[in-house]
Amino acid sequence: MTAVDHQLVKRFRQDAGDRIAEQRRQDQVNNVTPMSTEDERQYARAVIAQILEEYARAEINAGRTPLDAETEEQYAAAVHAALFGVGRLQPLLDNPEVENIDINGCDQVFVGYADGREVKADPVAETDEELIELIQVLGAYSGLSSRPFDSANPQLDLRLPDGSRLSAVMDVARRPALSIRRARMGKVFISDLVGNATLSPEVAHFLACAVRARKNIMIAGATNAGKTTLLRALANEIPPHERLITVERALELGLDTFPDLHPNVVAFEERLPNSEGQGAISMAELVRRSLRMNPSRVIVGEVLGDEIVTMLNAMSQGNDGSLSTIHANSSHEVFNRISTYALQASERLPIEASQMLIAGAVNFVVFIQRRNNFGDGGRLQRMVTSVREVNGVDGRVLSSEVFAEAPDGRIVPHAPIACLEELMAHGYRPTGTWG
């Protein structure tokens, strides 16, 4: 396979981008309906083919050998990826076994695979300036609104077209850096997580019934533990007639992209301020707004700050069946983590008040871990190891661990479920005995 000249790809991409932009201007002048995203992609393919044909003709006229058909296809794919994808990152994102991509400057690329391997990969740009340019293009086109990435805005979080999560920084490190967390399982169901041993059959059955019973569930775990994937799977247990509103810092859940499962979804994305510092819409504001839009359930993609108080208030005021994720190192630590966020919020809730709010809002905390499974060649394994039920408050949140990890590694019933009868009314049938 012939190596692609990335400088040539850059030239072709610029040419194609100029022609597409000119067509957009012509359509506007002539009052023609703007092309849809798919129409524009198809038009781009035709433009790229035309550019490659012109290039081949120029090579022949100059007495040089033109590109062969296979190489021309490679260039066409590379230019299309540069226009609509993520340039030289695209082959990594096209690989279903890639889990994480960490880039510390254009030529320091480290790839993590599903089997636990960490491999240094080829550069994704010729220079750091080109890498910044690539991130800027992604920031301009990947979200609901343009997100700047420059010296005045040196941080960027967004969802890539394939659902992966990108986080980038510049000017706070020696070189621009970014991390991409792959969304390897988009349309995921609880049965899929049983199949890959993330959930035991008993816990899976329990969680499905808890969702149907409209219990408020917090999913906790460390970074890259699989919280978002588990949240998607639980959300897919929600009946299709319900109206869902999702609130996220950067669109990632993608529930609105599966109308066969969730035909009535509004996906909110936090909006950052513009260059004048205006126009910001925070997560807390979006959670408040969601409550005015007739939601059956509100799903908060990830709680990281002052939106926690608004969300807990929503959960305790009749919006049952809410789901969210939070960073924590154990199911029990979640309560202290929430209290810390509440203390930092504009409401400045004292710990006692936040503990009362938690007890009135959260029904279950599900803890998911990421660990090496040395019995399977060191392959990384994500698994739910604890489910904790909130029972009340007495100065602090009272809870019981209804599922816990046994010494042999199995996840087994551990304490009686207080709302058992309610869950059984929604199909739950315990198969184990509580210790």
UniProtKB/TrEMBL annotation:
Domain Bacterial type II secretion system protein E span(s) in chain numbering: 126-363
GO molecular function term, any single one: ATP hydrolysis activity
Gene3D superfamilies registered for this protein in UniProt: 3.30.450.380, P-loop containing nucleotide triphosphate hydrolases
Pfam families recorded: T2SSE
Family statement: Belongs to the GSP E family.
Protein's recorded name: CpaF family protein
Biological source species: Streptomyces tuirus
